[in-house]
């Protein structure tokens, strides 16, 4: 009988398994260990999800629903104090960025601005026309550009050198008609300038100068 050794082997294995189970019954602490392991796995899965999301969404609108917010000053609009959709107006020229407006019920609430791209904060401070601003370095089609976020409360912006992922909080909009917005209405001026050099101009005098800037609307993925 050739089967006998196999049957004995199976019985031995079964007996060993039974002994092992009897010695280590599943107890409560074993479960919590499992839970810990599960949550660690969950973390790993989340990381994977995040990195794949980052690859998919390279660029994000710094405020939601850009198409419903960019209503007054789109990219490249030529304005003067007389014809400007915003009154009173103190500027003139071609608009180098886009202005995101807030809805009436958002004016008294904290408005969080998020990063357009994956990249470091290279400058933040105060400037004429903006109040608080922050510059983030981005890469579009492997070309370096700078992203300018104007009219922010600078104290809410992370330190220079901090690398942000697209969609991460970059700051909170400044209070309307205060020093935080340089006395402008509460809104976000957002602009993309070609190259790595920081350029703060919100308006330029002619269309050829406007060619150094990019319409960000073309890159929003949300
Ligand atoms: Zn603007």
Automatic annotation (TrEMBL):
| Coiled-coil residues | none
Q: Which InterPro entries match?
A: Dup_hybrid_motif (IPR011055), M23ase_b-sheet_dom (IPR016047)
Q: Where is the composition biased (Low complexity)?
A: 29-43
Q: Where is the M23ase beta-sheet core domain?
A: 94-196
Q: Which domain of life is it from?
A: Bacteria
Q: Which CDD domains match?
A: M23_peptidase
- Provide the residue span(s) of the region labelled Disordered: 29-64
Protein's name according to its UniProt entry = M23ase beta-sheet core domain-containing protein
Organism whose genome encodes this protein: Candidatus Kerfeldbacteria bacterium CG_4_10_14_0_8_um_filter_42_10
């Amino acid at each position: 009988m050739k089967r006998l050794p196999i049957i004995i082997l199976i019985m031995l294995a079964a007996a060993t398994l039974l002994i092992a189970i009897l010695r280590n019954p599943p107890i409560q602490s074993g479960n919590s260990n499992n839970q810990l392991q599960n949550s660690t796995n969950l973390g790993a899965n989340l990381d994977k999800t995040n990195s794949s999301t980052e690859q998919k969404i390279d660029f994000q609108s710094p405020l939601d629903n850009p198409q419903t917010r960019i209503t007054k000053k789109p990219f490249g609009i030529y304005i003067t104090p007389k014809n400007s959709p915003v009154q009173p107006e103190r500027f003139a020229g071609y608009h180098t960025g886009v202005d995101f407006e807030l809805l009436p019920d958002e004016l008294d609430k904290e408005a969080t601005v998020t990063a357009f791209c994956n990249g470091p904060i290279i400058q933040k401070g105060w400037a004429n026309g903006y109040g608080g601003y922050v510059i983030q370095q981005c890469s579009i089609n492997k070309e370096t550009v700078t992203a300018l976020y104007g009219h922010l409360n600078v104290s809410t912006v992370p330190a220079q050198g901090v690398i942000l992922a697209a969609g991460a909080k970059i700051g909170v909009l400044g209070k309307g008609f205060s020093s935080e917005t340089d006395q402008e209405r509460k809104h976000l001026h957002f602009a993309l300038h070609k190259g790595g050099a920081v350029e703060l101009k919100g308006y330029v005098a002619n269309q050829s100068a406007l060619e150094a800037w990019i319409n960000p609307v073309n890159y929003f993925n949300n």
